[in-house]
Design a protein that fits this description.
Length: about 180
């Protein structure tokens, strides 16, 4: 699971909520959408779109992810450091990167173990980035020039098209 930002046009001056779309991460006007992929990078779903100023952890919380994991099936969700707070609330179903807590007199082995755990986590999470890249390759959500009110439907449609495209088995080429 990860959130992706989609650049949008800036709201008109004097419009209420104009500052809500400014993302602190990318310093641009954006809308965020939460993307879920499976272990192979196949796009499963694309959640609600929210203004860019909403943190990833708040977006996951407001979408009902923690409640779903409490009552739903037992699954593992690999997240980035932006959602580390949910790992303890879900009984290990959300897997976040390891915290870095070194004291001054720690051995070098602890640093090596931490680096290996962080590398293993990022190796699992790279597939989420590939799923987001497939979504943004459609170019319609890459930079949205239309109305911000229609963006959630556009992103949902693009996610459905990408998911269908990834699930269709392609015929093998015949040898001539």
């Amino acid at each position: 699971m990860d959130a992706t930002e989609i650049q949008v046009r800036r709201p008109a001056q004097g419009t209420d909520g104009r500052d809500r779309f400014i993302s602190g991460k990318s310093k641009q006007n954006a809308v965020k959408a939460v993307v879920l992929t499976d272990a192979h990078g196949t796009l499963l779903s694309c959640g609600e779109s929210r203004p860019g100023s909403c943190p990833d952890i708040a977006q996951a919380r407001e979408s009902g992810l923690v409640d779903f994991l409490d009552t739903g099936p037992r699954v593992e969700i690999v997240v980035d450091a932006a959602c580390q707070g949910h790992a303890g609330q879900t009984g290990g179903q959300i897997i976040s990167p390891p915290h870095r807590k070194f004291r001054k007199n720690r051995h070098l082995d602890a640093r090596k173990v931490h680096a290996q755990a962080k590398h293993a986590h990022s190796s699992r999470r790279i597939r989420v980035g590939h799923g987001i890249a497939c979504l943004k390759n459609l170019r319609s959500p890459a930079r949205h020039h239309g109305r911000r009110e229609q963006l959630p439907e556009t992103v949902q449609t693009a996610a459905a098209l990408v998911s269908h495209q990834q699930s269709v088995t392609r015929p093998t080429a015949r040898a001539a």
